[in-house]
Each structure stands twice: as C-alpha cells, then as structure tokens.
Input
Amino acid sequence: MTALCVALAAVALSCGGASSVDLHAIPNQNVLLITIDTLRADALGCYGGPAATPALDRLAAEGIRFDFAHAHAVTTLASHASILTGAYPFQHGVRDNSGYRLPRETRTAATLLKSAGYATAAFVGAFPGAIPPMIGWVAATGSLDRGAWLLFGILFLWQFPHFHAISWMYREDYARAGIMMLPVVDREGTRTFRQIILYAVALVGMSLLPAILGLAGVMYFFGALVISTALVQVCLWAASNKTNARAKWLMHATVLHIPLLLGLMVYDKLPR
Output
C-alpha cells in the first residue's frame, strides 16, 4: 500500500508539472487504482459505517487511510480526469460527463506509468453500478427478495451498451493513454458492438420479468417491451455504421432508456 501511495504521488507530481520526479518501474510491484462510483466513505466499515466491507477494511488497516478528502468534481468523468492528471477541472478542462475530452497533450497517470515501463490496462465492473437500486429496495422493504435481484439484473445488463458506447467514442483517447479498453484492441468494432447487441437483447428479457413475476402490471410489460426493443434497434443501427456520432446517439438512448423503464415500473407496480 505504501508503494502504491508513493507511486501515485509521483504520478500526480509529474502530471501536475513537476518534471524532476523520478518515476520508474519497481520489480514485482504493481500500481492498482480502484475507484468506486456513488460510494459514501462513511458507509464503509473502516470509517465506522454499517456495511460489511472486509477487503477494503483490511486495505485500510494495513495501509494509509485518509480521514478527510474531497473529490474535485461531482461528476464521474471530471473527477476521474482530476485523479489521473493531478489537475483541477479548470486546468484539464473536463467539466461534465459528456461533451468534454482531455487535450491530446495531457499527461495522465497511465501515459506516465507506461513510459516508465508499466503495462497499463483498465477494467470496468458492472456490479457496483447495479448495487444502488438493490440497496434501495432492501432499505425500503427490509428484504433481499426477487425485486432486489430484478433491479440488479436490469442495471447490470444496461451498463454494457451504455459504457461500450462511451468507450467506443473515446477509444482514441484510451489508446493514447495506453489503457487497453476493448475498443482499443478491437479496432474494427466487431467484438465491441457484438457485446452491445447481446447485452441489449438480454436486457429485453430481464426488463419483462417484473411483470411476469407479478411485480408490475400489463402496462409495464408492453411498455418495457417497446422501450427495450427500441434500444436494441438503436444498437443495431449503431453497429451497422460504427461512427462516433452513432455511438453518441446510442449513449443518449441508454441514458433515456433506464429512467423511462424504471419510471414505468414505479407507475404500474402491483400491490405487494
């Protein structure tokens, strides 16, 4: 953990403009940066929270735990840009989740680590993004029942078309940073858009289950069928001509899809 903190501090200094920092690969040492979206620190066990988080608690106990820290921005992309560049949003220019990208000349943790001899890559987990609605269901009902798992399944599957559309739009940025996302190694987009379509098709079936299992009514069933099938159509349209413009439309379609689906579920819920 100490080696990680030292490495990240060196990267932050280098990205921030301190050119004299000596950054080099350390044999048998890895630099692992984990970020968890929409997570309150005071929910973790190591901060006195009620959640059972043994792995994070062990990291905190064996390493360095900060008692006071603030994100530089309230949106994911801008905050991650600050983490990876060591700069404030007004310095790196990213201020929101869409419509912004880092300038080509920007030095990031990934580019500096790659130049120092590290192999760099990024992994995105769909589990953290699908957990919040499950937590909300359990908090409201006091039970981890099928409703919680259905919400988890819908959000889990939805994230793949959403994130793959974003990563396809910014594949050149990922490539320059040395981050081996799927669209970086899949230059033709065959595997990327195959995954987009397959997960969108699976989402159709998952979206219908609340009505089939008696949690929502007939209006929700047919509304979910139309909404989710429409998303599949947008995925097929984007896959037929894999441009950044179509990927952006797909991203917007996913952003519109999930509130419509969940809003309809709330409107046509059946008494428990």
Remarks:
- Residues 164 and 196 are 7 Å apart (CA to CA).
- The first helix runs from residue 2 to 15.
- Residues 1-6 have pLDDT under 50 and may be disordered.
